[in-house]
Structures are given as C-alpha cells and as structure tokens.
Design brief:
six-stranded mixed beta sheet; four-stranded mixed beta sheet; D-Maltodextrin-Binding Protein, domain 2; alpha/beta; 16 helices; disordered N terminus; single chain; about 425 residues; about 40% helix; 2 domains; binds alpha-D-glucopyranose
C-alpha cells in the first residue's frame, strides 16, 4: 500500500484544486468529504455479526421514528479480518451504499489516512466529552476525530465458579488449577489463537502482562525482541505445549471459545464481555449460573487487557450524511448505550455508566466492575496506517511459536524485523 499517493505535497493539492475548479465550473469541489453534509434519506449500517440479535432491535426503534430515513442493517461475518477486507473493498469502490460502518479501533489510522472516513468536525461534529477518553483517542488520527466511539472492549477471565471458587490471580495459579480441569475431563484455559486479529490481541496481552511491549511509546518502533516479551509469549507457547491450553484452541476465534465454554468444555476462557449475557442466557449454555468473571491473570498479579472496541465511521461517499450523523448520535445516546450494556453485555462508551451505582449493584451486570477495571488499564495495539502488515507480523510469528514451529526467540526476532519493515509502509 502506498499512502504517499493520498498525501500529496501542498503544491500538488493546490494544483489539483485548480484543475477541479476548472473541471466542475465555479464553486465545484470533488472532495467527497465536502459533499452531502446536509442530505437525508435511507442509509445502510454495516457491522460484524449481530450475535445477540439486539442490533436489529435498535434499528427497528430508529426506523419506527424515522420512516423517511430508514436504516438497513448489513451484517458481515464474525471474523474481524473479513470485516476489514469487506470495508476496504467497498471504500475502494467509493460505494455510497456503506453509509455508516462499525470500525474496529485498530482500523482508524488506515481508513483515515486513505481518506475514507468523514472527519467529525464542523457540521459533522459530535460531543465527545461524555465518552471514554481511550475510545475517543482510538477514533482519532493525527489530532482529528474520524469516527464516533460506539462500544469499547476489554478482556476478562471467565471461570467456572462452581469448580474454582477463587479465580487464579497469576499464571502459575492458573496452571495449578488445571488439575481441576483434568479431574473433570475438560480443557483448562483458552483465548483466541487462530491466525487472525484475535491472536494479535492475545499475544499482545501476554507480552504486555509480562512487562513487555509490541512497540515503543512512539507507537511504531518495534520492541519485541526482549526478555519480557519472551516471558509473555512463552506463557502461550509453553501453555500450549504442556496442555494448559487444549490443542483445539489453536483454531479458536471468539465464537469457538465461547461455544466450548458454554458446552462445559473449558474451565477458563479469555474473552470479551459480550460472552457474558450469551453464556448466562443461551438456551444451549450448560454453564448458566456456574460462571463468573475476574481480571485476566499475569505473571505476578493482574495482567493487562488489550484495548478493543469499535467506532462508527461515516463514509465520505455517503449521499445522506445528515441522516448518518443522526443515526450515529442515536447509537451513542444514553438509552442505547444502556441497551448495549444490559442486553448485549457490550462495553458502553459513556463514562458515567461505569460509575452508576444502580448499574453496579444490578446482579445481572456482575461483570461491570471487572469490565471497567479492564478498560481502565487496557493497552492499545500499534497505531499506524499500515496496521494490516503489522498485525500480520504479530499473528504469524505468535502462531508459529504457539504451535512449536518456531522457537519463541526466533518468533520474536522475526516479529521485530517484520514490524520494522511494515510500520512505515
Ligand atoms: C473484538 C474487539 C476488537 C478486536 C477483535 C479481535 O471485536 O472489539 O477490537 O480487534 O475483537 O478479534
């Protein structure tokens, strides 16, 4: 990907603007970000699979109140890499049909640099004051807000409280508890280890928990060839070799792990908060009333979650941006943010909800405090327009180390080199 094409020198911009003015006649502009700002009409909202079915209810609510500006929900698959590629394809085709899309926090820089997201300024501004600071930061690129925080995400440890009343606080305690799993003929611990974005999340968490980091504070200089990163990645690699992590977990994304946990095949599961309500209420869940959540363990105490989440991006190619903006504000409103929390057990982006005494005391929201703590200490993944290549470097090498195809040392050396060569395009 050559982004230079999208960042022409100032002189070239002026020259191009002259050409455009000549071509379109006076006052014309072919900058898609300047068009359709006050236009209204039907729009399409694109996001990953609606696991709970509740996003459909939100859309029904909107449509009942806006019969002339109806929203059509387009569901993608539940695989974040496929969601990303689908969005890229439609943006490249300048598709006016993808008005609003749910943008993973790690895609902001790439999409913004490509000029695909409508900057949320001027007539398109939103009020970001009540929103989680880290979620706003994740939707910002080079000082400009390009998307509106929608839901956040922090990892937690799901554990079978009927079998392990006190959840492990450290990796050693977790490994010791595997005796319980063995006695019950179940797998001990799993996260997401298939070769996709979820593995970047899990490998980063292990590395961060051990005091390492993927990149330095500048967000792009790789820093994984270190003893701390080795300790972190070894937790996963050794865990897999020694059976703490069951063999089949090498194919797990979020949904397969959730399924295994709901089927009673796992003692511990690292996953996001959306699993909570499904495992508590799914007709097929065998663990209803038998599980709870705790902070993710680390080598010497609580570990560190990777910051996840999604923001709502308005496409620069949308023909109905005023409607798109109102729909975005609707999804960020207090009642809908409560619905994300209460119905979908998704992490809202309204800061106040994490301090609301009534919500914190609600037994159905038993995960809220743990989730808030997870978010408060979550660590971001690298921020770069070349993120797809960076995450590939992390995924491929972590995967090889976990499977035992490469030593952890070699995997980290290769990861270091691959991040270095991809981070600047
Ligand atoms: C969740 C997170 C997202 C992350 C993905 C990885 O959807 O919100 O940030 O990239 O999981 O699978």
């Amino acid at each position: 990907m050559n982004l230079k094409a999208y960042r022409p020198a100032a002189g070239a911009v002026a020259a191009a603007a002259m050409l455009v003015l000549t071509a379109c006649g006076s006052g014309g502009s072919d900058d898609p970000a300047a068009q359709h700002l006050s236009d209204r009409g039907p729009i399409t909202y694109v996001q990953g699979k609606d696991n709970t079915g509740d996003v459909k209810n939100m859309v029904v609510k909107w449509n009942a109140a806006h019969p002339d500006q109806k929203v059509t929900l387009k569901e993608q698959s539940d695989n974040p890499d496929q969601q990303h590629d689908d969005l890229v394809q439609h943006f490249k085709a300048q598709d006016a049909g993808y008005d609003v899309s749910s943008v993973d926090v790690v895609w902001t820089a790439e999409f913004a640099a490509q000029g695909w997201l409508q900057p949320l300024e001027g007539a398109m501004a939103i009020d970001s004051k009540p929103l989680l600071k880290e979620a706003v930061k994740a939707a910002t690129y080079q000082g400009k807000l390009y998307a509106a925080p929608q839901t956040s995400d922090g990892g937690m440890l799901y554990y079978r409280k009927d079998l392990v009343p006190n959840p492990p606080k450290t990796w050693d305690e977790l490994a010791a508890d595997c005796a319980v799993a063995k006695a019950h003929r179940m797998g001990c611990y799993a996260g997401q280890y298939a070769k996709y974005e979820g593995l970047t999340v899990n490998a980063s968490e292990a590395i961060n928990a051990a005091g390492g980091q993927i990149v330095k504070a500048d967000g792009k200089t790789p820093d994984v060839d270190t003893p701390a990163a080795k300790k972190g990645l070894s937790f996963l690699a050794d865990g897999y070799q020694k059976g703490v992590i069951p063999q089949e977990a090498i194919t797990y994304q979020e949904e397969q792990g959730r399924q295994a946990f709901e089927d009673g095949k796992l003692l511990f599961l690292r996953n996001w908060s959306y699993v909570y309500n499904l495992a508590a209420a799914d007709a097929s869940s065998t663990v209803k009333g038998k599980f709870a959540v705790a902070p993710e363990p680390g080598p010497d105490g609580t570990g560190a979650s990777t910051l996840g989440g999604h923001s709502l991006g308005i496409s620069v190619y949308s023909a109905h941006k005023a409607t798109a903006l109102d729909f975005v504000k609707f999804l960020e409103s207090d009642p809908i943010q409560r619905e994300y929390l209460q119905v979908q057990s998704n992490a809202p982006v309204l800061t106040a909800l994490y301090r609301d005494p009534a919500l914190l005391a609600d037994p159905k929201l038993g995960y809220l405090k743990t989730l808030g703590d997870s978010l408060a200490t979550a660590k971001s993944r690298p921020v770069t327009p070349f993120y797809p290549a960076v995450t590939k470097a992390i995924e491929e090498n972590s995967y090889a180390a976990i499977k035992g195809d490469k030593s952890v040392d070699q995997a980290l050396k290769d990861m270091q080199a691959a991040i270095a060569s991809s981070v600047n395009g």
